[in-house]
Design a protein that fits this description.
Elements lengths: L1 E5 L4 H12 L4 E6 L19 E5 L5 H11 L3 E4 L6 H6 L1 H24 L3 H6 L1 E7 L23 H20 L3 E6 L1 E3 L8 H11 L3 E4 L5 E6 H14 L5 E4 L4 E3 H16 L9 E4 L14 H7 L7 H14 L1 H9 L16
Parallel strand pairs: 1-2, 1-4, 2-3, 4-5, 5-6, 6-10, 7-9, 8-12
Antiparallel strand pairs: 9-11
Helix pairs in contact: 1-8, 2-4, 4-6, 7-9, 9-11
């Protein structure tokens, strides 16, 4: 099987590409515009693999997408490319609409044209897997969980753009019978995450001995999902998920932002044998507009139907992630050298970052 993965040079996308090639034996065509959060170095381990190809294109360009579909002739699509950082969406919302809404519409049109040109078993087996976020559901109070039937109530421009893209995928499935499936995930973390998101920001700030800013009082709660567990879930949904369905993917790992930051600081202190606690670097800063209090996923559907469960506890995953950043300084130092400024904490997972 050949999969066309959009956003394959990003954080989650690259995990999917690496896993699809090395553990599934699939051929992968990676379509990526290589914007700021994409990094070809994420794919160094498979860049020369005979089953991997890269295609630079922007999902906002329908003509370019049609050319990539013609060149790659995929059996399935995994659509991860997106603008994904909540803070950036607050500062510049139109870019999120252009990429996440119009870009997804373009992908659906290009996929539909390709699919309608297939025949027989290939047409029957084709599917379009759209990867989205739990932020489309809005926010939870102290109790309760998001399920696949939770009403959409997005609160940020980012979440609204992803909710819009989900609705477009649903519409293409209903109107044109395009074989689609949607997944909505909780906050991802792990190796290769672009250093504007919460966990890499905390790690790198602590390593540098710089102030670690935390929004509000740090009581906001997220369900954390290790990126390799998410990649496995996505491939499982692609392979066995029921068409037209939504699958929520969560890590069963609810932690407040403040507790998570403190956990990272303790691991760094242990790894580096620090005597002065890195927790002393924490500073509470003004909360961002519309900051959702809590996200939590009920992943019972994917567990019961497809047999997927997260393999990493948040304690295991965070420890592995911290060690990866300690052992791969060249990777994040190269990003810093390109001028990336870590001035804010990001609290969203980002499907394409």
């Amino acid at each position: 099987m050949k999969i066309l993965v959009t956003g394959g040079a990003g954080f989650i996308g690259s995990a999917v590409v690496r896993r699809a090639i090395t553990q599934r034996g699939y051929a992968v065509a990676n379509l990526d515009a290589l914007t700021y959060a994409a990094n070809p170095a994420n794919l160094d381990s498979i860049a020369d693999h005979p089953d991997y190809s890269f295609h630079k294109a922007d999902i906002r360009d329908l003509d370019a997408l049609n050319k990539v579909f013609a060149e790659t002739d995929p059996d399935a699509v995994m659509h991860l490319a997106a603008e994904s950082h909540v803070d950036r969406s607050i500062e510049g919302p139109i870019a999120f609409v252009e990429t996440n809404v119009m870009g997804t519409a373009n992908m659906l049109q290009a996929a539909r044209t390709h699919w309608e040109g297939l025949a027989g078993a290939r047409k029957e087996a084709f599917r379009f897997h759209h990867i989205s976020t739990d932020e489309v559901y809005g926010a939870l109070g102290p109790t309760g969980f998001f399920t696949e039937t939770t009403r959409y109530a997005p609160n940020s421009p980012y979440a609204s753009s992803k909710a819009s893209s989900d609705m477009l995928v649903r519409a293409w499935g209903k109107t044109y019978k395009l074989p689609v499936v949607i997944s909505n995930c909780s906050n991802n973390y792990g190796p290769f995450q672009f250093p504007e998101k919460l966990i890499p920001v905390v790690i790198l700030k602590a390593l540098a001995g710089e102030t670690i800013p935390v929004y509000g009082d740090g009581s906001n709660v997220r369900d954390w999902l290790y990126v390799d567990d998410h990649a496995e879930a996505l491939l499982t949904i692609l392979e066995r998920g029921r068409l037209g369905e939504i699958y929520n993917v969560g890590g069963d790992a609810e932690v407040s932002n403040l507790d998570l930051v403190k956990q990272i600081c303790k691991i760094i202190d242990q790894e580096l044998d620090r005597k002065t606690p890195s927790e002393d670097l924490i500073k509470f800063v003004t909360d961002r507009p519309g900051h959702d209090f809590r996200y939590a996923i009920d992943a019972a559907k994917i567990k019961s139907e497809l047999g997927w469960t997260p393999s990493a506890t948040v304690e295991q995953g965070i420890a592995e992630t911290v060690r990866w950043y300690l052992e791969n300084r060249d990777w994040w130092q190269a990003i810093q050298a390109r001028g990336h400024q870590q001035e804010r904490i990001g609290l969203t997972k980002g499907t394409g970052a």
